[in-house]
């Protein structure tokens, strides 16, 4: 009689364990995977300021202007010039009514405001390397004359 | 043998029961709020609306443009401009205003005062299908070029600048109203013509004062000194 109870108990226990494993096993496995550090984060550490500097030195000179768009017009006396280049690079902004130097931040973004004169203004953004090699991007922006 | 069969039987019964309980609880969770919109769906709908609004604003901004070029001909309700991208028709109406800027002074003019060959910029709204502009403002002003290049030759006050792409332009810096130099620390200082040396990068705002001459006149010039 007691053997029958022991057999029933073992059967129930095994059944519960296996059923729980089948039902909740995949979820637990996924959770366990998320808590473990990923292979990429072990082999490739996040960039530190020093790494960024080293990377920026090896990067070729680039310049992309996001704003202003070519052949655009504004009604204020100035235009916002923004874009992306090599981190830490100085960008020379030059136009008929103003000139400025902007500096790109750690990820290469820069922005500055440039005064305009009435009518069409051809403005340029230039980056220059140590050997005077330069990249220049020009945009035409018109300053509308305020209506009286 | 009986024991083994008994264990397998119990296992199957328990597995079935647990599976049934689990499926039932999931079904209850899913059907508990059938009519309520999940928050993630609301966010997706809002994102879609925001994207549509941004696209509409971008399209409207793209239609507001300027055309710059040389006047080819002037009619009664429009004029034709020769632009770097080809000929463009600029329609005008009663609301269009016209200005002429000469030597820094601006005067209001009329459509009839525009002359063929004159440098003009028109601002307004462009019809995307025909590229025709309806202008709200037309400004006649001598085109000013922004030239950036490395000095390759100097002949008295005439400088040859080699631009990116290899184009060489000659500019006379004698008439420049302002001469500046930019040092490596980023400071703008007053400059002399002697600071504009071969090999340096020079920025010039120039214009063509004489169509026969290849040399441009200058309004302002800046030299970058890396040493």
Please give a structural write-up.
The complex is a heterodimer of chains A (148) and B (227). Chain A has three helices and eight strands, in the order αααββββββββ. Chain A is an alpha+beta fold and 148 residues long. Chain A has two domains: 2-36; 61-143, Sandwich (Immunoglobulin-like), CATH 2.60.40.10. In chain A, the strands form two sheets. In chain A, strands 2-8-7-4-5 form a five-stranded mixed beta sheet, with no helix packed on it. Chain A starts with a helix and ends in a 5-residue tail after the last strand. The model of chain A is unreliable at 32-56 (pLDDT under 50). Chain B is of the alpha+beta class and 227 residues long. Chain B folds into two domains: 63-141, OB fold (Dihydrolipoamide Acetyltransferase, E2P), CATH 2.40.50; 145-224, OB fold (Dihydrolipoamide Acetyltransferase, E2P). In chain B, 24% of the residues lie in helices and 42% in strands. Chain B has helices at 2-31, 39-63, and strands spanning 64-74, 78-83, 86-91, 97-102, 105-109, 119-126, 133-141, 145-155, 158-162, 168-172, 178-182, 188-190, 201-207, 216-224. Chain B has a five-stranded mixed barrel. Chain B starts with a helix and ends with a strand. Chains A and B meet through helix 1, strand 4, strand 5, strand 7 and strand 8 of A and helix 1, strand 1, strand 4, strand 7 and strand 8 of B.
């Amino acid at each position: 009689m007691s053997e029958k109870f022991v057999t029933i108990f073992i059967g129930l226990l095994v059944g519960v364990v296996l059923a729980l494993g089948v039902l909740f096993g995949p979820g637990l496995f996924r959770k366990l995977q998320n808590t473990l550090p990923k292979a990429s984060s072990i082999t490739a550490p996040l960039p530190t300021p020093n790494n960024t500097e080293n990377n920026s030195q090896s990067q070729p000179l680039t310049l992309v202007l996001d704003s202003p768009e070519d052949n655009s017009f504004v009604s204020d006396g100035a235009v916002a010039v923004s874009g992306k280049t090599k981190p830490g690079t100085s960008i020379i902004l030059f136009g008929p009514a103003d000139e400025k130097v902007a500096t790109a931040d750690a990820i290469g973004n820069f922005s500055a405001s440039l005064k305009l004169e009435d009518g069409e203004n051809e403005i340029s953004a230039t980056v220059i390397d140590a050997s005077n090699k330069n990249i220049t991007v020009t945009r035409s922006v018109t300053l509308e004359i305020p209506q009286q | 043998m009986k024991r083994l069969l008994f264990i397998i039987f119990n296992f199957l019964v328990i597995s079935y029961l647990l599976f049934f309980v689990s499926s039932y609880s999931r079904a209850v969770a899913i059907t508990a709020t059938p009519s309520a919109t999940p928050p993630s769906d609301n966010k997706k709908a809002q994102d879609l609306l925001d994207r549509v609004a941004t696209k509409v604003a971008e399209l409207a901004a793209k239609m507001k443009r300027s055309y710059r070029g040389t006047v080819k001909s002037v009619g009664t309700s429009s004029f034709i401009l020769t632009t770097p991208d080809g000929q463009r028709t600029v329609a005008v109406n009663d609301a269009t205003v016209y200005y002429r800027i000469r030597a820094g002074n601006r005067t209001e003019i009329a459509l009839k005062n525009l002359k063929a060959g004159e440098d003009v910029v028109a601002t307004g709204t462009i019809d995307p299908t025909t590229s025709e502009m309806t202008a709200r403002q037309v400004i006649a002003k001598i085109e000013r070029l922004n030239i950036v290049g490395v000095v390759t030759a100097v002949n008295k006050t005439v400088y040859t600048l080699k631009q990116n792409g290899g184009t060489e332009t000659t500019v006379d810096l004698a008439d420049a109203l302002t001469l500046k130099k930019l040092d490596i620390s980023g400071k703008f200082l007053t400059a002399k013509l002697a600071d504009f040396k071969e090999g340096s990068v020079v920025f010039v705002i120039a214009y063509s004062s004489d169509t026969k001459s290849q040399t441009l006149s200058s309004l302002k010039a800046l030299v970058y000194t890396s040493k």
